[in-house]
Amino acid sequence: MSPTEPQCVAPTSCLLGQSPVWSASEGLLFWVDPNRAKLHRYKPKTGNTRRYDLPLKASVIALAGGQLLMAGGLDLGLFDIETEEFTRLAGLDGDPGDIRINCGGVAPDGAFWFATMDAAEKTARSSWYRFGADHKIEQIAAASVIIPSSACFSPAGDVFYTADTAEQELLAFDFGGAGKLSNRRVFATTSMGAGYPDGSAVDAEGCIWNAQWDGARLVRYRPDGRIDCTVRLPTSRPTGCCFGDDDLRTLYVTTARTGLTAFQMDTQPFAGSLFALRTACPGLPSRGWEGM
Fold it and tell me: What are phi and psi of 36, to 5 degrees?
């Protein structure tokens, strides 16, 4: 059964919507717009949306015991949805105008993994870090890239997936626990002009759904890197995806409008919106950070 046609479910006009996370306990989808320092919320059962002002330009979020773990600039902290208060927990030294956090996700052991990158997007200076329940930040050994995107794991938790966006490569590593990565390999590329790999989600069959910036599409890859199916989108800059709803068979897709020309804006009126499509295979539930 093929995926359904993507539909705009929240016309939020984000400059850079990204890092969608589904909260099953609340029946809510959250995502951020770091360029505007905003958090967005969507409730599928009512169609209602809400926007929160943030004290930091959060680029990635994760569930954290009824709150949201946020990382942006070089800081990590908790955002309380009820009080709308942010509590800083930790951070990296440096100038966020030089190096900044770009992506992240929760590992099978409950630790939060995140990657930094060159803020100018010119030099391969990225680093991966692990933020555990002890609130300590530990560096993970991985080769540097210009723009790291995606942070997800196979259903068995033994493979880590990420992307080298600038080189148009999707990468896989063997994951040995406690931040140990080995056997780095390229399992797919988009170098034939299909766009740049951005955020990803893994489904119950171990296939990787990848949003492809400037490619106007989502691609479902099998674990061996072969393309299973392609879903066209009505906007050119999808940024990430996440499974949600009660059966985890709705794939939510965040998009961006930043950098589009006036002509592109006219032809893509829903750029920056949240889209949704139904899939035959359910996704994996969002993991929560176990640092609470």
Answer: -110, 0
- The DSSP-derived string for 256-277 is B-TT--HHHHHH-TTTT-EEEE
Question: DSSP secondary structure string, 150-179?
Answer: EEEE-TTS-EEEEEETTTTEEEEEEE-STT
Q: Is 198 a catalytic residue?
A: yes
Residues comprising the chain, all counted: 292
Instruction: Identify the band that residue 192 occupies on the pLDDT scale cut at 50, 70 and 90.
Output: confident
What CA–CA distance (Å, rounded) separates 57 from 79? 12
Query: Which member of 33, 75, 118, 198 is catalytic?
Result: 198
| Mean pLDDT taken over the chain | 96
Q: Pseudo-torsion of CA 221, 238, 212, 195, nearest 10°?
A: 150
Q: How far apart are CA 182 and CA 177, in angstroms?
A: 11
Amino acid at 159: V
pLDDT digits (tens, 9 = 90+) for 255-290: 999 999 999 999 999 999 999 999 999 999 999 999
Tokens of 113: 């993994």
